[in-house]
Amino acid sequence: MLKKQFNSYFLEGKLFLYVFFLLITCIYGQKEYPSFDLPSECSASEYFDYSSLTCRACEINNAIPDENGICSCKFGYYINHVISSFYTCTACDINYSSTADRKNCMKCTYGYNEEQKSCTCPVGHYIVEEYDVNENSYYAVCKECPENSYPSEDLSSCIYCTGDTKPALIKGKYQCSCYDNILVVTLTNLK
């Protein structure tokens, strides 16, 4: 009896595999299989669509994908609602940049980088978005970073240095650096 059940399951299993491979052969023909992209193969203007396993471009003009694969307007453009959930990205005027949520444009009160369509601030400052109720408009206001911190690359916040480090502007970029009186040992010094 046990041997009969085993043979029955074995035959059903063989039948399942036979049907499975027959379907695969019919669907994909002469050993042609669909190609899939890898997330690392997507360009900066594409996002990885996990449902189709392919790289796709954002369908909205002047939109780029964020780190979560969600298309949003580029910096310097704002979301212009045309019809309910459909929107386009519209460029902000010169001396204006987009707010962080890309829903509005804000006036640059200190300086403006036309190439990047972004507001600028003096060294050691970051941007705070402020809304003026009377004028119904947004402004980019430059605020100084607190002691022992420096502005993030996009000027949206300040980054704090920890331990025995302090902010330093090296080759045009901020980073935390050791104080002068602390010896830094690297692998090259150990040779």
From TrEMBL:
GO terms for biological process: cilium assembly. SUPFAM superfamilies: Growth factor receptor domain (SSF57184). InterPro entries: Growth_fac_rcpt_cys_sf, Meckelin. GO terms for cellular component: MKS complex. This is Uncharacterized protein. It comes from Neocallimastix californiae.
